[in-house]
Amino acid sequence: MAQSLNKVVDLQTTGTSYLSITGKVGKFLVGDHALEFYADRNVEDYIQIPWSSVNQIGANVSGRKVSRHFEVFTDQGKFLFASKDSGKSLRLLVKNWEMTR
After folding, report:
1. What is the top-level taxon of the source organism (predicted)?
2. Whole-model pTM?
3. What is the pLDDT of residues 60-100, one digit of tens each?
4. Apex CA 10: angle with CA 82 and CA 41, to 5°?
5. What is the distance between the alpha carbons of residues 68 and 87, in angstroms, rounded to a whole number?
6. Is 10 exposed, middle or buried (0-12, 13-18, 19+ CB in 10 A)?
7. Are 69 and 83 in contact (CB under 8 A)?
């Protein structure tokens, strides 16, 4: 069973992970210790990225609009995600990531 790395969750939203060829829809958890993604079809199919292993976070920004797609660069590689709430998600991602650095 998947055990969350976060003790406090700042944001929970629906999104897509593009780790495989076909995107997987699930829930994002942005918390105090990690970014987590749990697939809707199988909760055991998850991604946990601790803030300590995040090197960079990227997204396309045009004016005040943030693209729904964003990337998280880690020691292990690049993870591509999409979310309708990407603007809100990215603000919290960057805030929590910077607090752990």
Report:
1. Bacteria
2. 0.85
3. 888 878 888 999 999 999 999 998 887 777 777 778 777 77
4. 45
5. 8
6. middle
7. no
